[in-house]
Structures are given as C-alpha cells and as structure tokens.
C-alpha cells in the first residue's frame, strides 16, 4: 500500500520504466519486512521444482531484461491491446527471472499497473487470478523460459477491469 501511494502520487514524474524503478518499488513496499528489499537475491531459488535463474547470472539477466523489455516500451499506449502486448511478456519475464527473494509477484503486478496508469488505462484486475487460476498463471510464467509469452498475453486480456 505504501508503494502504491508513493508511486501513483508521483506518476507524473515517472519518465522511464527501468530497473531502478522496479528496485525502488520493491524497496518501498518491503523495506519494513526485509533488509534485502530492493536488492537482487543472493540465494538460488526454485518453486514447485522449477529453478529460477542462478544468482551468479542475475546481474546479466537483469541487464538483458532491461534492454529487451524495458527499453522497448513506448512512451505511451494508444490501445489496450498494444499495452497488453508489451506488458504481458514483460510481466512473465520479470517473474521468470525472480530477481528478489520475496515479493516478486506483487512488485511485478504493481509495476505493470504503473505502466497502464501512465498511459491513461485502469489497473489490471489481478484479483481475477484466483486460486483456481493460479496453475494457469504459473504455467504462463514458466512458458517465458522458452520465450513463449502467448499464455501470459491471453491471461492479461482477461484482467481488464
């Protein structure tokens, strides 16, 4: 909530959606819980037998992510479908990278919401990702390992408010 209030109130001052902003969102949201808030994780992680990129590769993976996804973002989006075609792959890739020890999902959700808000769209309705839809969401993230972003794009189309 603290991060939402801070960054939404400063939306007019956000000119670049970059790694620094993602890190700052994570730090603002979680610094009261974790001393490592806003910093790349220092431990290898897996979830449900799925291994996230190893710690030793994180700096270069994050750099590639910034070049391929963040630098490619247009300054604004005219149509909702154009927005989805950019933020769904970005979201899937960010979660696949899993750069932080904890709080990756919430950080990624809020980051793409900021992109939407900056272009005049509403928040995505992530509440639609219910417990029943969680396997679909996880499979969409795992598909990003193969650069297959269609599952996440399809899911994002259903998140319109």
Describe the structure.
By secondary structure, the protein is mainly α. It has a single domain (2-38, 48-157), classed as Fido-like domain (Fic-like fold). The chain is 52% helix and 2% strand. The chain has helices spanning 2-9, 19-30, 58-70, 80-97, 104-118, 134-143, 150-157, and strands at 46-47, 50-51. The chain has a two-stranded antiparallel ribbon with strand order 1-2. Strand 1 (46-47) and strand 2 (50-51) form a beta hairpin. It is globular. It starts with a helix and ends with a helix. The model has no long low-confidence stretch (mean pLDDT 94).
What's the helix and strand layout?
Blueprint: H1 2-9, H2 19-30, E1 46-47, E2 50-51, H3 58-70, H4 80-97, H5 104-118, H6 134-143, H7 150-157
Antiparallel strand pairs: 1-2
